[in-house]
Amino acid sequence: MKKLFTLVSLLMAFAFSANALEGLKLVGNQLCTESGKPIQLRGWSTHGAWFKWCADDESDIAAMKNEGANMARIANYFESVDTGSDENWVKGFIDNCAKQGIYCIVDWHVLRNYDGDGSKGNPMDKVSDAKNFFRSITSYVREKNYNHVLYELCNEPNYNIEGDPYELGKEYVWKWIKDYCNEILPIIKDKDPNAIVLVGTPQWDQAVVFPFLDPIDEMGLKVMYSFHYYAGDQERYLGLLSSASAFIPLFVTEWGLSSHTGGNGISTKSADKLMAVCNGKNLGGQIISWANWSWSAQDESSAAIRNGGYDSKNWSESGNYIREQLRKGDNFSFCESSAYDGAQVFDGVNDFYLELDKFDKGGNYNAYYDFDESWVACSPIPCNSGAAGMYDGIRSDDYVDVGYTNENNPEDGYLSLGYIGQGEWVKYTIDVKHPGDYEFETYTTNHIDYNIIAFTVDGKNALVDEDGNEIHRALELQTSGSGTSEEGKGYDQWGWTTPVCPYAKNKKFRLRFNEAGEHKLGIVFMTSTSGLGSLKIIGDPGNGSDVNDVNNQVVSLWPNPSEDGSLNISVNCDADVTIFNIQGVAVYSGKIAAGETKLDASLASGVYYVTVKSENGISTKKFTVK
Ligand code: IDC
Questions:
Q1: Whose CA is nearest to atom 15 of ligand 1?
Q2: How confident is the model at residue 554 (pLDDT cuts 50, 70, 90)?
Q3: What distance in Å separates the CA atoms of residue 508 and residue 308, rounded to the nearest whole number?
Q4: Residue nearest to atom 8 of ligand 1 (CA)
Q5: Angle at CA of residue 497, ends 495 and 501, nearest 5°
Q6: Which fold has domain 551-625?
Q7: Which of 16, 180, 309, 473 would you label with 604, given CA atoms 20 to 30 Å apart?
């Protein structure tokens, strides 16, 4: 039977050999084909090499493809639990994927340190083996001129202690990963610089805040970050994927329908939620690729195949669930929400206080992501234990937990967000009258939580530092007053504070609105957070008077559209000019004097924003290059 299948698939491979795969690239955070079309890679991960009988010749890859997969992940375990790293198996697998015309991920399967104290998954422990491995694989890929191979540098770096992803990853694991990337990325850059590179995140690929809180040096490569999910017992992490999607390119390089042990039955409800997030219901509107654990006949619920193998159609429940997902093909659906009670108006001149109870309409997954539709205990990890609609009458059909900052005297305070779990986000429709970068403050308590917060405008990062750069895209809320941060205390002590970045403590941060008009402002909680009373966006009085209005100082911008990438700009005071592309990346910056200036920025065709900053303020205008 297997032979017949092999013959048929070889014939098919021959017939379709003209179907060469397109290379992959990133457009903003979105994985796309070379021609710029968003693509979702879907399929299975292999088990370790000791189960390679399920993934050792071309018929195995053909069987995956036959079920609708366009990608396979090769889990190259490299330590004593199995037969060790098997480079030849990996190379053969790469060849077979090429023949079948599907993409593949080469995964250096960091799991734990078997030689050390048996607990920590520090990728640096085996860095010289990893370097040899990636040198050999990238050389092979280059020699064969392949463009279908993605590299996953380290499966699941971890400290092997259950708990909050931020706290535990903070001290150790992200530093390990950064050091490791500094060793491995140059090897990839040398031999296969156009490949997609997948970088693991702390706490078994769940602490996805680090890449945008404290970014690595990506060395100009196309880097995406891994997230892992086990439906049986890890639903409390799903919001992290949903929220991080607005900030970084993500790839679910491993997920199972089982619990994280690989066993304990399957949880299709939780799996459905992951599929919805991957298919576009996430803050960033990102289409997220995934690989399911596992393509094997291991005797555990996560395995796709039962004894007897796929050619006798002996699929497991997990296998059948994945086959059903694959059969659906592209099945995308994005968040939709609308203003609760008209847009909240920020005139750009006066300080603006966001009314937190007036989040958008549209419900969970659309207007917000709130983990606990019903109460869920999730000890020992701090997460959202609040009841939906904490107070009767306040949006009680929704799950966002709204309370008062002053319970004894509600009039004297704000309606606040509370019981905030990691990965939750809330959207507000806000009408911005003057574009620009604005300072802000938050009304916070004396908290005990980790309090990492981020902001989006229209699903993209909105945080810039005082130099206008988007490097650190998450901040830490500061305690109010001098209160204690002991557990259970300080929740009722509120005050205005300015969030700071723990990795750039002296920098000031601002919220950027590129254009006037209605926008969706997203407030994003990347860790558990004790409470948010209000957000104050500080107005710029300069925006109010005609004399100081920098908008009026831009006499004109022409031609728009520009034909050749150059642009004339006319201002009546000295100013700094920065041009951003549609992804928010600065592509030009310089100083101009009052009067007319021709900017020769040699811009490629596309849509851009030019920001003009002078001592009087800031203004942003949109233009197009043909
Ligand atoms: C598990 C396998 C199991 C094997 C074990 C070896 O399912 O058969 O005995 O590895 O350590 C991961 C890992 C992945 C695990 C999987 C399930 O990346 O190697 O596979 N899992 O426990 N992370 C979370 C879950």
A1: 262
A2: low
A3: 62
A4: 298
A5: 150
A6: Immunoglobulin-like (2.60.40)
A7: 473
CATH class for the domain made up of 344-547: mainly beta
Ligand 1: which atom is nearest the Cα of residue 51? Answer: 8
User: Is the distance from CB of 415 to CB of 198 less than 8 angstroms?
Assistant: no
Residue 503 to residue 513: CA distance in whole angstroms: 24
How far from 228 is each of 40, 203, 234, CA to CA, in Å?
16, 10, 9
Q: Which CATH architecture has domain 2-328?
A: Alpha-Beta Barrel (3.20)
More confident residue, 571 or 335: 335
What would the two tokens of residue 86 be?
């098997």
Distance CA(205)–CA(196), nearest Å, equals: 17
Domains in the chain: boundaries? 2-328, 344-547, 551-625
Pocket probe mutation, ligand 1, options 47, 111, 230, 298, max atoms within 8 Å of Cβ: 111
The predicted-structure confidence for 72-98, as pLDDT tens digits, reads as follows 999 998 875 556 788 999 999 999 999
Q: Are 220 and 259 in contact (CB under 8 A)?
A: no
Q: Is residue 383 predicted with pLDDT exceeding 70?
A: no
Which residues neighbour 487 within 8 Å (Cβ) at sequence distance 6 or greater?
Answer: 448
What is the model's pLDDT at position 626? 87
The pLDDT value given to residue 55: 87
Of residues 522 and 53, which shows the higher confidence score?
522
pLDDT of 373: 67
